[in-house]
């Protein structure tokens, strides 16, 4: 394994417990779309989270259209994306909390100064920054090293597309193989894998009855070198990554 120089953090449900709050707002808008299109299906926030965890709202709506054979014009999609962003940011600014133990570990890593640190998310930049600001993690990251698949790229996309990871690596000036990514979702973990970035899986936000299944998915399907249940395990996990065989890059 090349020397690890850079730690790339997913944000939603990895650094900040944001997904439940976000999917409450997303469900309202998804149900509005389904009602307008004459489809009887209605989502709760947890149901939508189960179907589309790890995706940004644009990717979620594209999935929704495919799943229920409905159509939105580009203008309609853009309008809903903007409405969702405003609603989610408002919720995060009021209620977002850090993942348990994340603050201590990120603070310690920042103080040590050994690794470059960046945030690489599918979510819109304003949403990511609202999350980081609310929990006080913004001070740990350079503002220009907070990346969004929905906002930072010339063509907006969403994980599992690896574009945002490859863009972040290029901007920071590092090779994917010298980074480590921390991801909780299949889409995010797949994006890291497809970018050739060694992966630490994280299952802290999941319910006890989901942890075994999620751990297996992150390891077997997404190639996680190790999976942590709590941020207190991060240093041991990072050591295991640094001792692991090299990951093939794209």
Automatic annotation (TrEMBL):
Gene3D superfamilies per the UniProt record, alphabetical: HAD superfamily/HAD-like, Putative phosphatase, domain 2
Family annotation (InterPro entries): CbbY-like, HAD-like_sf, HAD-SF_hydro_IA, HAD_sf, PGP-like_dom2
Molecular function via GO: phosphatase activity
Statement: the UniProt record of this protein carries the keyword Transport: no
Signal peptide: none
Keywords: Hydrolase
Pfam families, per database record: Hydrolase (PF00702)
PANTHER family, per database record: CBBY-LIKE PROTEIN, XYLULOSE-1,5-BISPHOSPHATE (XUBP) PHOSPHATASE
Protein name as it appears in the record: HAD-superfamily hydrolase
Organism: Eremomyces bilateralis CBS 781.70
